[in-house]
Give the backbone structure.
Amino acid sequence: MKIWLTLFFQLAILNIAKGQQQKEIMISGTVILNNKGIEGVLIKNESSNKTTNSDADGHFTIKCQLGDILHFSSINVETKRKKITKTEYQSTTLSVTLSSKTIDLNEVIINTNTITAEKIGIIPENQKKYTPAERRLKTAGDFKPTHLLSLLGGSSPLDPIINKISGRTKRLKKELEIEKKERLLERLKTLYKDDFYVMNLKIPKTYINSFRYFCIENQYLVSYLTSGNKQLLELSMSELAITFNNNMSSEE
């Protein structure tokens, strides 16, 4: 009788333990990608077919039993399966790190045989390309003293002489200089954002545009900017920033 009672209690304890292990509980988890919670990941319990999705912070909750397999999938992450361990089951928490999905691209062939006006014979190859201001000045013609001598011989065009007298050539030259400076300003704006002037050169934000104009008046800086020598360009800008800030301080 005593043996039967002992077996009964042992079986009861085993059944209770088994029941506790198989008890379905709510687990709170987080899915992480690149050290941040990721939204929109589908989490599926393969045992119960229950599903849920992670929120904007990567959090989710789902009912699980010990040993259940969770399936994680999304369009931009590699699929992952995770078994609920005893530690996770007891703590009712779970953290899963996912990896970005790699996408194999087809080979891209760049065709260097681009059709251009030069290649189809419309204009000669290696011909100088003029800006609008340069074209206007070229069309007007630049007056030279030799034009007067040629005019006497009847071989000189009248346009450069007329434009010189009327002042049109001078105005076109001025427009060309303005155009060149505008291109230099745009190049500076492209190379360096406002934060560079404020943090590195200590230029007040309200004076950044004024400093850019100050820079393009320096022939050395313009040569570095045009040649693309960024190291010398930034060194020159640093020196000019000291002068510019000192000038601004003295005016105040």
The chain has a mean pLDDT of 77.
